[in-house]
Design goal:
The complex is a heterodimer. Chain A is an alpha/beta fold. Helix content of chain A is 19%, strand content 31%. Chain A is built from 7 helices and 15 strands. In chain A, helix 3 links the parallel strand 7 and strand 8. The longest helix of chain A has 14 residues. Chain B has one domain. Chain B has a 4-stranded mixed sheet with strand order 2-3-4-5. A 3-stranded antiparallel sheet of chain B has the order 1-7-6, with no helix packed on it. In chain B, strand 6 and strand 7 form a beta hairpin. Chain B is flat and about 65 Å long. Classes of the chains: A alpha/beta, B alpha/beta.
């Protein structure tokens, strides 16, 4: 029987610094991890601990996968000391993927904040891989400063893709910044899709998700069409240890992406 | 010394310790950890309030897409011989949860001591115990006086429980607990007496929350699983430091919601068997029965 707590080795092939404290790690696992966009992987930094991250690369190319990670604590701190060639542990995929079949034929309005663009990139790549299945894709992304924008080199390429519309904002600009200044909701004053039927997908810091969600509801989006990446403490990743309980859900199993319709009755879901 | 089967009520230590050990290695890196099959063993004298929680653990750890191979190996190698509680104590309240002071299912065999003789009823996989030493057993016929005596003994135990705990809780206990989910003023009356020792959770036969953590060894690491407690401040805290249950009263309420509402909704059973260990251990004398009686 499989041991769900046992990680498999994954070699770091490359690293790319996205911002001063966010780095993308390209990992090659010993066996393919068959993730779908929205699912997560538990990453072990040998000797330091384990934490859940969502792959940020395409589900259609899985011999390697990317993890875009912000340095915040003990495990991520130790991870940033590792170099290409070093080996980490991985187990997964866990959780419930984005239900892409429900997104078919619709406009998809994606809102990201900070490192929250990482899991949204996996979604974006899954959508654009089969772009004929969907209407248009809107990506709205906010970061603190121009230096805190992740995938800086990719965003201009994404803007050129057919049926894709990208817009960016920063909280604090510098002299070279030509786009909007303000928190990400400043990009949402005029939402160019049908709010009754369109899908909204949000990932970012809890406070950002709270306000973006409210803005989407005010604009007329339906609760069951708003997909939110919920942050909870996870340990086992497989629906047993109970740390990630959020109202009636286990985010590691039912999530980490839940709709507003699912969580609206939970007391203060955006902690 | 009395054998566990002869004791009036359950032992102090919950039976879960045998299946989901308080601390064990469940992984390693880069090499893998083998799941060893423990030799066959018999747990003798399990009371029903320890037997019923195994159903909870079987559901969480033994079913679904991801199963715990360590738990299942322990479970598979263990024969469970239950024993009646002929004289429930004042701390027992299985009757309030619809349970009985004797096993009804889930045991491989059930023992009842009747006039000093051991009445042995074969359950799920208990026949092998009889086959192993047939000379120790004498068949009992249907309608024999021993069975009649057992029935009366059991009825007396149930009657004693109904005297200790006469008043049933809210008939919709799950709904009543859920309705108080965010009502801090209700829970704080009891929570303020808690000294956060977690004795109630460690001793609980049902609680199974655990934490995985890694320890560096020379050139590898060992992944250890330890019991965890939802009363701990860090239990739900996320990497960035945010905590949905930073105040103790939220964690206190969460325990009740988990046991009596969420579990009932998700799995059709309460995560409590009325063993009374939680308030026997409690330094603040918080009696779970009294908390629930206020609903």
């Amino acid at each position: 029987m499989n041991n769900p707590y046992q990680a498999i080795p994954a070699t770091i092939l490359e690293t790319h610094d996205e911002t001063p404290n966010i780095r993308t790690f390209v990992l090659k696992p010993e066996q393919e991890i068959p993730f779908l966009a929205g699912q997560f992987v538990e990453l072990t930094v040998p000797g330091f601990g384990e934490a859940p991250f969502t792959p940020s690369s395409s589900q259609f190319k899985r011999d390697t996968f990317d993890m875009t990670i912000m340095k915040v604590g003990r495990a991520t701190g130790a991870l940033f000391d590792l170099k290409p060639g070093d080996v980490v542990g991985a187990r997964g995929p866990f959780g419930t993927p984005y239900p892409l079949d429900k997104f078919r034929g619709k406009d998809i309005y994606i809102v990201g904040g900070g490192v929250g663009l990482a899991p949204l990139r996996a979604l974006f790549l899954a959508l654009t891989h089969e772009i004929d299945k969907y209407q248009r894709i809107f990506l709205r992304y906010g970061a603190r400063t121009p230096n805190d924008i992740v995938y800086r080199h990719l965003l201009p390429e994404w803007q050129k893709l057919p049926k894709v519309d990208v817009d960016l904002s920063v909280d604090v600009s510098d002299e070279k910044w030509m786009k909007k200044v303000g928190v990400v909701t400043c990009l949402m004053d005029d939402i160019p899709c049908d709010e009754k039927t369109s899908i909204a997908v949000v990932c970012g810091p809890p406070i950002m998700m709270k306000f973006v969600n409210q803005k989407l509801l005010d604009a007329g989006f339906q609760g069951e069409n708003i997909y939110l990446s919920m942050e909870t403490n996870m340990s086992c990743g497989v629906g047993q240890c109970r740390h990630c309980r959020l109202g009636p859900y286990l985010t590691c199993k039912d999530g980490p992406v839940l709709t507003w319709a699912q969580i609206k009755d939970i007391e203060n879901p955006f902690v | 010394m009395l054998t566990p089967a002869q004791r009036r009520i359950r032992a102090s230590e919950p039976v879960k310790s045998f299946m989901l050990q308080p601390r064990r290695q469940v992984g390693s890196f880069p090499e893998t950890t083998a799941v060893e099959e423990p030799g066959p063993r018999v747990l003798l004298g399990i009371k029903n309030c320890d037997l019923v929680p195994l159903k909870v653990h079987d559901t969480i750890l033994g079913e679904g897409e991801f199963k715990d191979p360590f738990y299942l190996a322990q479970r598979k190698s263990t024969l469970l011989v239950a024993a009646d509680c002929p004289e429930p104590e004042k701390s027992c309240f299985c009757n309030l949860l619809g349970l009985t002071p004797y096993a009804q299912d889930g045991a491989d065999a059930t023992l009842t001591i009747v006039d000093g003789d051991w009445l042995f009823e074969i359950g799920d996989s208990g026949q092998q115990l009889v086959d192993a030493a047939p000379e120790l057993f004498t068949p009992v016929q249907e309608g024999s006086p021993e069975l009649d005596k057992r029935a009366r003994q059991r009825a007396a135990a149930v009657a004693a429980l109904n005297v200790t705990n006469p008043r049933p809780w809210n008939s919709d206990l799950s709904g009543a607990v859920a309705a108080k989910r965010g009502d801090d003023s209700f829970w704080s009356r009891h929570a303020e007496k808690c000294v956060e020792c977690f004795g109630c959770l460690m001793g609980c036969p049902t609680c199974y929350c655990f934490l995985l953590y890694d320890q560096a060894k020379e050139k590898s690491l060992g992944r250890t699983r330890v019991w965890d407690a939802c009363y701990l401040a860090a239990y739900a805290r996320v990497g960035g430091g945010a905590n949905p249950r930073a105040e103790f009263v939220k964690r206190f309420a969460n325990r009740f919601v988990c046991k009596f509402s969420d579990f009932k909704t998700d799995h059709g059973m309460y995560a409590c068997s009325g063993c009374g260990r939680c308030f026997k251990a409690c330094m603040g004398k918080i009696d779970i029965r009294k908390v629930l009686a206020e609903l």
